[in-house]
From TrEMBL:
InterPro entries: DEATH-like_dom_sf (IPR011029), Death_dom (IPR000488), THO_THOC1 (IPR021861). GO terms for cellular component: THO complex part of transcription export complex. Pfam families: Death (PF00531), efThoc1 (PF11957). Residues 288-370 form the Death domain. Residues 133-142 have a biased composition (Basic and acidic residues). SMART domains: DEATH. This is THO complex 1. It comes from Nothobranchius kadleci (African annual killifish). Residues 118-142, 254-282 are annotated as: Disordered. One of its GO terms (biological process) is mRNA export from nucleus.
Amino acid sequence: RQQLPETHTGAVPDPVPVLEGSGQIQKLSDSNFRRHILVQYLILFQYLKGQVKFKSSSCALNDDQTTWIEETTKLVFQLLRETPPDGDKFATMVEHMLSTEENWNAWKNEGCPSFVKERTVDEKPKRPTRKRQAPEDFLGKGPDRKIFMGNDELTRLWNLNHDNMEACKSDSREFMPSLDEFFAEAIEQADPANMVEEEYKVVRNPNYGWRALRLLSRRSPHFFQPTNQKFKSLADYLDTMVCKLAKELPKDLPSEEIKTGEEDDDDNGDNLLKESNDSPSIQSKLVTNQQMDDIAAKLGAQWKTLASHLEMKAAELREIETDSEDVEMQAKLLLVSWQDREGTQATVENLVSALNAAGFSQIADGLSEA
């Protein structure tokens, strides 16, 4: 290997010669190779100058050697800046990485101390001065222990009641309508005698249908009752629900007047109207929703005893147990399933017979008196 000649200026010669196969030394213009060699020089110079914990004392540099390394380092950075492409940018990144490496060596020499500084007792942050009044400074002040809310109107509204949470539970705060109030118009329109066309019924209104579904989910057990019947639209579903509610809710007209879709023609509707006028006691024989609530509360966990006398299938009982864990709600679902299956035959007389057969004579007597 041919020795590199020294320059009179002391500068490092261009360190990119390689030995070709022919034995002649040629200078390459490969920037990657040039940068690789120059960066290695910088790493070596940093190690020789730096304070390394495990470096032998015999490796210390004298003043002349230190001066030469500093001057040569400047020349190497100058060569890096002159080497394309993006020489200035590359030299800046190398200088930054070497500075980071120097900080890392200093941290290791100090024994790798923790970066988290322990806070002394005197350096604990002081609690900032509170600009606003604390609640205890303005709540319940004055002769009437009023709560001042910032202005007279808010103060008046807040102090209408001493216990606002109890006031929210008051009956006057109940804005949800009952089933009979909300569906009164729909039940009336379902009566064939009123001759209301389908397109003008309230159940065809999407807004009304949306509110009806929300009310049914909160008030009616029929909403969660499983069924195999398929509906083409929301209006068809509401028509069915209106017919069921008409049988339960107390009305002046008999529930048989409501069109259920089972009539063959208008003559049958007229016949039902005549029969209902002749027999005003039919409405009283149909089991109402309130009666089912009372019976469910009395049955409780014994509802399965009644289920066998209502001829309920085992699969239906499993569905009821799956739908709710509350025994009172299970009893209510049992009666609702029986009512949906029996239809117009879900009368008080039939339910009383089933209760007597199941051994619930007291509940049957109470239902008969009602």
